[in-house]
Amino acid sequence: METREIQKLIDFISKSDLDEVNIETSELKLKIKRNTEVKQIMASPNNPQMISVAAPQITETPALPAAPVADKSVAPTADSNLLTITSPMIGTFYRSGGPEKPSFIEVGDDIQSGKVVCIIEAMKLFNEIESEISGKIVKVLVEDATPVEFDQPLFLVEPN
Fold it and tell me: I need a labelling partner for 152 at 20 to 30 A (CA). Which of 72, 76, 109, 146 fits?
């Protein structure tokens, strides 16, 4: 089961009336409880490594008027002329596809929407991160092979 599938399952459960879900396969054991502090995921029966992740508290809030939805992976910066490409996940940031390979992008490069700008490794999966904007790379904000958080700024881009 991939990280995105697990996240979709957690989102689905948080919107449902279920209080607890247990899923067990030959490769994965997943137990999710509503309103608890820890979720446990077991990697495999042969290599039982328990991973604990803080679970978000699920609360209901009154409905608010709909607001325009902004793309979270591209956020404006303090300098209103520049946009920020942010990390869509937690993981390890890599500027290239391998140790001996050139970086996907450098400062000064022009990028188009859909161009791969980096790789983020999460749970031994290498996820190519594509730009959702076109423009010129002004600054790389993260060092190669360093951990990144969800929504952390990665690049500053001057839009075309």
Answer: 109
In the prediction, which pLDDT does 85 show?
Answer: 95
Please indicate, yes or no, whether residues 98 and 149 belong to a single structural domain of this protein: yes
Q: What is the pLDDT of residue 72?
A: 45
Contact 149, 87 (CB under 8 A): yes
How does DSSP classify residue 114?
Answer: T
**pLDDT by 10-residue block (mean), the chain, 160 residues:** 72 72 72 56 50 44 43 53 94 93 95 95 93 95 95 94
Separation of alpha carbons 130 and 22, rounded Å: 34
Global confidence as pTM: 0.52
- Helix (H/G/I), strand (E/B), else coil: 105: coil
Per the structure, the count of domains in the chain is 2
Identify residue 72 by its one-letter amino acid code: K
Please classify residue 112 by burial: count the beta carbons closer than 10 Å to its beta carbon, then call 0-12 exposed, 13-18 middle and 19+ buried: exposed
pLDDT of residue 46: 53
- Please give the distance of CA 53 from its chain centroid, rounded to a whole number: 15
Question: Which range marks the domain in which residue 110 is found?
Answer: 74-159
**Claim to verify: residue 83 and residue 155 sit in the same structural domain:** yes
Would you say residue 81 lies in a domain? yes
Same domain, 7 and 48: yes
